[in-house]
Design goal:
147 residues, 4 helices, 5 strands, 39% helix, 35% strand
């Protein structure tokens, strides 16, 4: 393989990763669970710090389970108060990292949460195989705890 073809393949891989992640973000914003199921691989390396007091945070491993997280989050939070901004979107081959800030309000308690987040996604063969989310779990747990 020549250097030029290796660079072209790497560029094509990064473009696919960027496209799939953009589709993922659009589907999350639209609440399109069907599209999310299609974007996730059948088996996903899902990581989100366990937080027993937060109903939408639980272990997941299938594409359908991962896609359902969006619906579960919507059931337990106030849609009008949900905010997420992406400040950084980095792509390196099959990996993408998004960093930003999120906030919302838990429907059951009326309490707010907020904080920075980092999301690492891996895209292989056009589907998301890794979803690792790092967020302010203390703020979210506090917002889920009744007064």
């Amino acid at each position: 393989m020549t250097v030029k073809s290796a660079e072209s393949k790497a560029s094509s891989t990064a473009e696919t990763t960027r496209r799939v992640v953009q589709e993922f973000l659009a589907a999350r914003i639209a609440g399109d669970t069907g599209r999310l199921v299609a974007l996730f691989a059948d088996d996903v390396d899902w990581m989100l710090a366990e937080n027993p007091g937060v109903p939408w945070i639980r272990p997941r491993s299938t594409g359908a389970e991962c896609a359902a997280q969006s619906e579960e989050l919507a059931e337990h939070t106030v849609a009008e108060d949900a905010r997420a901004s992406v400040d950084t979107f980095l792509v390196d081959g099959t990996d993408a990292v998004l960093m930003g800030h999120l906030s919302g309000t838990v429907r059951a308690t009326g309490k707010s949460f907020e904080g920075p987040f980092a999301l690492r996604l891996t895209v292989e063969e056009g589907r998301i195989t890794r979803h690792h989310l790092y967020e302010n779990s203390m703020s979210i747990a506090g917002a889920c705890t009744p007064s």
